Amino acid sequence: MIRTVSIVPAILTDNKQDYRAQIERINIFTRRVQIDVTDGIFAPYPTLDITNIWWPKNWAADLHLMASNPSNFIDTILKLHPSLCILHAEANEDLLPTFETLKQAGIKTGVALMPATYPGNVKPYIDVVDHVLVFAGQLGVQGAPADLMQMEKIALIRNMKPEVEIGWDGGANITNIRALAHADLDVINVGSAIAQASDPAAAFQSLVAEIDKNGVVL
């Protein structure tokens, strides 16, 4: 079965002015956006600090927090109240208490899996979250090539929890978007292919049109 796939633009920057500019460009054509934030430890590249993050009230914002100890940021996350908060399975702490706190606040939860992380090894997290993010790029960097071997995880996750929303993050662009869309994903996050395009709205529409094409996938 080919699922309905959402193309979700991703914002990643360390500059307040650029952050606002990206929001203004994206706001023209979508209302669901992934916002990538690092703590400067888990990922070697710093982003805008989480205390400087904001988004339009009509957005369904997915907050992707790349942090070693995400519980340190829980008060800020609760104030921001994203639609979905994605934490990394490889964090230096048990994520279950933080997931519970987020759920009690009405925030959907997600767990991101780095390329070396086998889904079966983090089943307790997958069992409780609403979203599993297959990470196939480079932490804190847009424009890195996609590790398409990570698509093998999708079936493992789907067999483990059929109803969970599965997302992809890393290297999605016009050359591979159809293959990804036919891989039983629900969400494909797109960074540089939209953010660095001369016309982000047109780039977004091209990606949507590409996955809607009939015929041979590859």
Protein topology:
Blueprint: E1 6-11, H1 16-26, E2 32-38, E3 60-66, H2 74-80, E4 84-88, H3 96-104, E5 108-113, H4 123-128, E6 131-135, H5 152-160, E7 165-169, H6 177-181, E8 187-190, H7 192-195, H8 200-211
Parallel strand pairs: 1-2, 1-8, 2-3, 3-4, 4-5, 5-6, 6-7, 7-8
At CATH level 2, the architecture is Alpha-Beta Barrel
Number of strands: 8
Distance between the termini: 17 Å
Mean pLDDT: 94
Radius of gyration: 16 Å
Give a verbal description of the structure.
The protein has 218 residues and is α/β, with parallel strands linked by helices. The chain is 29% helix and 21% strand. It has helices spanning 16-26, 74-80, 96-104, 123-128, 152-160, 177-181, 192-195, 200-211, and strands at 6-11, 32-38, 60-66, 84-88, 108-113, 131-135, 165-169, 187-190. Strands 1-2-3-4-5-6-7-8 form an 8-stranded parallel beta barrel, surrounded by 4 helices. Helix 4 (123-128) links the parallel strand 5 (108-113) and strand 6. The longest helix has 12 residues, at 200-211. It is globular. The relative contact order is 0.16. The mean pLDDT is 94.
Question: What's this entry about, in short?
Answer:
With 218 residues, the chain is α/β, with parallel strands linked by helices. 29% of the residues lie in helices and 21% in strands.
Keywords, please?
single chain; 218 residues; alpha/beta; TIM Barrel; 8-stranded parallel beta barrel; 8 strands
